[in-house]
Specification:
It contains 13 helices and 14 strands. With 345 residues, it is α/β, with parallel strands linked by helices. The strands form 2 sheets. The chain has an 8-stranded mixed sheet with strand order 13-12-11-7-10-9-8-14. Strands 3-2-1-4-5-6 form a 6-stranded parallel sheet, with helices on both faces.
Length: 345
């Protein structure tokens, strides 16, 4: 049996910046094979395919008709995620979709229905959950090392220039981005907060477009009450110069842990020394001012999780249910900001 016969065949839909992370991650995995790519702009697909020595499909339909493609990575603008997920599910392909999975509640429900009906697996990219530092903090939460958790606070004070938004007509629009500082830039941090703190009971949000000429928010804040009774605060912005690393602090009556980007910067547990396998340090890279400043490791680990989920017929670690829960919370913050009401989830 050849190596190709045992590998999971992948293709990429959408050849923008983030597609490079998918391509490089897939080509680093022994159990995966990157077969080809498609883009609404044929020249972009051809250039991308030449770069990775893969096939350029003339259309998404041609890509989905290829029986050698078992799974697809959807790397298009956010507003196109849901229709492409549903189309790929209908073609019987397993799906990896960049964040956010969808940008409306109706799209969320349609995706869950399509995945279930067609018996395919879906993974939503949230690569930060695979970092060793985050895994260590999650273990601390599972072991209840912090005692009664009191608060979970998330700060994402980023900088994106007007030129960043102006370089693509879809950026900063409701139709294609689905939101701004929270739905686009802040969604990874919010996913980390949710995965540690659990379901949200209520939320009160404020959003503003302060300095950028865009439809969506460049500045946002939200107060949360979790089902556990703990409280939380989210701050997200793309309006702040020069931008700061993402900071997530979880605090309890027995201890506090703080994560900056992918580094633990505080580990203080009552009566305990810092464990030998916890490294305290500043983040090596930060996407606070540069959206391209992200490590390849997270995508590689998450795409490998999807490969093994397909091979072993199990759910991927971050699936459509996780994707829906995350988008539902951000949409609730937007609705609260619009109506001035506290929303109960």
């Amino acid at each position: 049996m050849t190596a190709h016969a045992t590998q999971i065949g992948f293709a990429i839909i959408g050849c923008g910046m983030i597609a490079d992370w998918h391509a490089q991650a897939l080509q680093a995995l022994p159990d995966a094979r990157l077969i080809g790519a498609a883009d609404a702009r044929p020249a972009a697909a051809q250039a991308f395919a030449a770069r990775y020595q893969i096939k350029a499909y003339e259309s998404t339909e041609a890509l989905l008709a290829d029986d050698s493609v078992t799974a697809v990575c959807i790397c298009t603008p956010s507003g196109l995620h849901a229709p492409l997920v549903i189309q790929a599910a209908g073609a019987g392909k397993h799906i990896v979709v960049e964040k956010p999975m969808a940008i409306t509640r109706e799209q969320n429900e349609a995706i869950l229905a399509a995945v279930e009906k067609n018996h395919v697996k879906l993974a939503v990219i949230s690569q930060l959950r695979f970092s060793p530092a985050f895994v260590k903090i999650r273990q601390a939460m599972e072991q209840k090392l912090l005692g009664t958790v009191v608060s979970g606070d998330l700060s994402m004070k980023y900088y994106r220039s007007q030129a960043y938004y102006d370089q693509s007509s879809w950026r900063g629009t409701w139709a294609m981005d689905g939101g701004g500082a929270l739905m686009n830039q802040g969604i990874h941090g919010i996913d980390l907060l949710l995965s540690l703190m659990g379901p949200v009971h209520s939320v009160h949000g404020l959003t503003r477009t302060r300095v950028r000429s865009i439809e969506v928010e460049d500045t946002a804040a939200a107060l949360l009450e979790f089902d556990s009774g703990a409280l939380g605060c989210i701050q997200g912005a793309t309006s702040i110069y020069p931008g700061s690393p993402r900071r997530l602090e979880i605090a309890g009556d027995k201890g506090t842990v703080t994560l900056e980007e992918d580094s633990i910067t505080q580990w203080a547990i009552e009566g305990q020394a810092i464990p030998d396998d916890v490294v305290i340090g500043k983040p090596a890279v930060s996407s606070a001012a540069n959206p391209g400043a992200i490590s390849l490791d997270g995508h590689r680990l998450q795409l490998n999780d999807m490969v093994q989920a397909i091979r072993n017929d199990r759910r991927p670690m971050i699936d459509a249910v996780d994707g829906k829960r995350l988008v539902d919370l951000i949409l609730a913050i937007y609705e609260s900001a619009k109506t001035g009401r506290t929303l109960y989830l």
